[in-house]
Amino acid sequence: MSEPILRVDDLVVEYASDGYAVRPLDGFSMQAEAGQLVGLLGPSGSGKTTLLSVLSGMVPATSGSVTVQGIDVLGLSGQELQDYRRSRIGIVFQGFNLIPSLTARENVAAPLLVAGQTRSAALARADQLLDEVGMDDRANHRPSKLSGGQQQRVAVARGLVADPPLLLADEPTANLDLISAESVVSLLRRLRESGRTIIISTHDNRLLPVIDQIVEMTPVADDAEVETGQRERTLEPGEVLFRQGDASDYIYEIEEGSIDVVRELVDGTEEHLATLVAGNYVGELGPLLGFPRSATVRAADRAKLLAVTVQEFKLEGLNRATDHARP
Ligand SMILES: Nc1ncnc2c1ncn2[C@@H]1O[C@H](COP(=O)(O)OP(=O)(O)OP(=O)(O)O)[C@@H](O)[C@H]1O
Ligand SMILES: [Mg+2]
Question: What's the CA-to-centroid distance between 49 and ligand 1, angstroms?
């Protein structure tokens, strides 16, 4: 198999949010081959936009590595970073970001004009791309005169203007009606056939049939593990059950002992949120809402816990204490 065009290894991105450390990506890895359409799937907050921002060199990573065509992206700065962004990647932002006062062809040509190309060369290239995305007949329309799907196709054309090997698109079909979404999907499918690698984030199930590789941003619980009797967890004092920022899987019922719920702060210290004893549940919010863990949980003294799936938790009914901190 050929060398992947993109490799992400053990990527960690940490944000500071109100003094709390949020880690949407924590040990994330993936690869993409030339000509693949890769879909980043996951609920809101699972780090899709964050990953695309790191790949495009706009957000720094805390640790890990990102390699695009052999280039160590996280090590780039200054002119090298600018060159990377200009020649290796194309970006299609959420919400199109077209300039309202410019026509479609001027919008597509804009990055080349900024890069110093002549107006006639830039417009000729824009016309070629608008043709490629099926928008040649509307080249002289301003964005306000185009439908959502048409605007999105212009945005894709602009992302491709420097002929990058890697196209990054954040929710390319969000807010589009069925017909517009279909035109964008068939465009992406055609672009992939030309050998480009396309990475999109999406909640949109309509895209699933054309995606070559699905990357789950929030790993789901492995049911097989549950079947084979891993439901009971015994923790020694101080042992960690899960860490803030981890992907959420199970909800835990405390059967014996007690556990501490703490929040990790950006300065490396932690805030004690609660101590929970037998009879309580812990960790229900993350799995229920599809969020990563918002706090770290560890045993205060020797504790015995039972792992429960979201479905079981819901079935188990409403008569339980819920007045405690729930990461
Ligand atoms: N600049 C920032 N500062 C602090 N926290 C941030 C920042 N950007 C994102 N986050 C947090 O990081 C997490 C991941 O956000 P991200 O935007 O990557 O998610 P997403 O998967 O793209 O979500 P959506 O589907 O809603 O677009 C969220 O918890 C978010 O609040
Ligand atoms: Mg997003």
Answer: 7
Give me ligand 2 centre to Cα 51, in Å.
Answer: 9
Residue having the nearest C-alpha atom to atom 30 of ligand 1: 45
Domain 6-216: give its CATH code: 3.40.50.300
Mutational pocket test of ligand 1: of 12, 23, 26, 49, the residue with most ligand atoms within 8 Å of the beta carbon: 49
DSSP code of 291? P
pTM higher than the cut 0.90: no
List where CATH 2.60.120.10 sits in the chain.
Answer: 223-315
Question: What is the token pair recorded at 208?
Answer: 């699933």
Task: Return the SS3 of 22.
Answer: strand
Residues of each domain in the chain carrying CATH 3.40.50.300: 6-216
Q: Which residue has the tokens 């932002």?
A: 93
* Residues at Cβ < 5 Å from ligand 2 ion: 48-49
Say yes or no: CB of residue 50 within 6 Å of ligand 1: yes
| Backbone phi, psi, residue 14, to 5° | -120, 130
Could you read off the pLDDT tens digit of each residue along the chain, which spans 327 residues?
Answer: 567 999 999 999 998 877 778 888 989 999 999 999 999 998 888 899 999 999 999 899 999 999 999 999 999 999 999 999 989 999 988 666 899 999 999 999 998 998 899 999 999 999 999 998 889 999 999 999 998 888 988 998 999 888 899 999 998 888 777 777 877 888 888 888 878 999 999 887 777 888 899 998 875 444 444 444 568 889 999 999 998 888 788 889 999 999 999 988 878 888 898 999 998 888 888 887 777 788 899 999 999 999 888 777 776 654 444 444 445
Residue 6 CA to residue 200 CA, distance in Å, equals: 14
CATH superfamily of 223-315: Jelly Rolls (2.60.120.10)
176 C-alpha to ligand 1 centroid (Å):
22
